[in-house]
Write a structure and sequence with these properties.
heterodimer, A: 300 residues, Helix Hairpins, Pyruvate Kinase, Chain: A, domain 1, 6 strands, B: 140 residues, alpha+beta, Single alpha-helices involved in coiled-coils or other helix-helix interfaces, 2 domains
């Protein structure tokens, strides 16, 4: 059985751990607020963008022949680029594990169909995992997710994707990110970036609000050219949103994990204190017995 | 005049301007255009450059915009830009330094194959426009 001293030392250690997890929880909470504010700030842009792009898409839909190449699905898909977003740092529960497991499933599914998948890793955890397993990693971007990043990051990644797509290096691009559903739930989600598919959907969401309002616009490069100008931006917007969502998710996951850890520490301290008190009591009782025994012996 | 125009300049990071304006002058892709209240609704892309507007007290304000497009409605102008900065938020020294760097990069790109000439040129344009906006402050 552990001595009193040992138990005391253990309690001290757990208390220190608790202090750390509590501090990490608070840091994550404040970062989470920042990340959520950023998402909030991005929303007006994203909404307006979807609205304008949707109405443009509606106007030039008629002519399938000359559709912009970014919208045309390839008949044969041989290579896919996957943008994998994970966090740079650990201690955030199953956050990265979930994302990586999802990526593994995606890779396996595509491999079974005979499609080659190339990875673009945003975030250290995903990169490390797939580098250890010798996957083909096209490029990596560390120090972005969970930190401060600007729209230009999304533009850079998006631009190289678009260049690769147009030159025929790959046939589809997907993005795997963590959708911030709620504080308690972050869902790994795959979204197709190229060819662009989500234009019409954005339109449907907006349509109810302003019917035919935009359709009367004069377009100053013609609608087709405007569209061609805006489509790449759609990709940037998607990537940026993915980054924002993943960052927010990371902080939420870490907050949750650290909250659990703090609670576990508390529980452990309670039970250790109980053990300590019992041991102390036992020691006192034993000592008392000794004294009483000794006294009895003297008397006799 | 038939009231004011609502001017919104939005970037992915934040809403830069949300103001009432009497007139707006924006750097359209096909040339600079002015907007007064009651303008026909139209949609255009913007060049990198200076967006000017008169706020409701009549004083002129200048905003740097890059990589954006504008939606004009009779009573509202919405600018979506990849980046935008109000004149007073621009650090003149930093803008000048950026301009110098962009010039060097462009000179380099001209000589070497591996550097992206177009990108360097775009960077230079941005830096130049930013400095112009910042300098406008000194003039008035």
């Amino acid at each position: 059985m552990a001595t009193l001293k040992d138990i005391q030392r253990k309690i001290g250690a757990v208390k220190k751990t608790q202090k750390i997890t509590k501090a990490m929880n608070m840091v994550a909470a404040s970062r989470l607020r920042g990340a959520q504010q950023k998402m909030e700030a991005f929303r007006p842009y994203a909404n307006k963008f979807a609205e304008v792009l949707g109405s443009l898409a509606e106007r030039i839909e008629a002519d399938e022949e000359h559709a912009p190449p970014l919208l045309v699905p390839r008949t044969e898909v041989k290579t896919i680029d996957l943008v994998l977003m994970t966090s740079d740092r650990g201690l955030c529960g199953s956050f990265n594990t979930n994302l990586i497991a999802h990526a593994e499933r995606f890779l396996k599914e595509k491999a079974d169909q005979g499609i080659e998948v190339r990875l673009i890793c945003m975030g250290r955890k995903g990169r490390d995992y797939f580098r250890r397993r010798k996957y083909k990693i096209l490029s990596e971007h560390i120090g972005i997710v969970g930190a401060k990043f600007g729209f230009n990051i999304a533009v850079n990644v998006g631009r190289s994707l678009i260049d690769g797509f147009l030159s025929g290096e790959f046939d589809e691009a997907h993005m795997l990110f963590s959708e911030f559903v709620s504080m308690a739930r972050q869902a790994p989600t795959v979204k197709q970036l190229l060819p662009i598919t989500s234009v019409e959907k954005a339109e449907e969401a907006q349509k109810a609000e302003d019917v035919g309002y935009i359709a009367e616009h004069i377009c100053e490069p013609p609608a087709e050219e405007l569209m061609a100008e805006m489509l790449p931006k759609q990709v940037y917007v998607q990537i940026f949103r993915g980054l924002l969502e993943t960052s927010t998710s990371e902080h939420a996951a870490r907050m949750q994990a650290m909250d659990n850890a703090t609670n576990n520490c508390k529980e452990m301290i309670t039970s250790l204190t109980l053990v300590y008190n019992k041991a102390r009591q036992a020691a006192i009782t034993a000592e008392l017995m000794d004294i009483v025994g000794g006294a009895e012996a003297l008397k006799g | 005049m038939a009231g004011n125009i609502r001017l919104e300049v939005v970037t992915p990071d934040k809403s830069v301007v949300s103001d009432e304006a009497q007139t707006v002058v924006a750097p359209g892709a096909y040339g600079e255009f002015g907007v007064l209240p009651g303008h026909t609704s139209f949609l255009t892309t913007l060049k990198i450059g200076m967006l000017r507007y008169k706020d409701k007290t009549g004083s002129e304000r200048i905003v740097f915009v890059s990589g954006g497009f504008a939606e004009v409605l009779p009573d509202k102008v919405t600018i979506l830009a990849e980046s935008a900065e109000r004149r007073r938020d621009i650090d003149v020294e930093r803008a000048r330094a950026a301009l110098r760097r962009a010039e060097e990069r462009l000179a380099e790109a001209r000589k070497r194959e591996d550097l992206d000439f177009n990108r360097a040129q775009a960077a230079l344009q941005r830096a130049l426009a930013r400095v112009k906006v910042a300098e406008a402050q000194r003039a008035g």
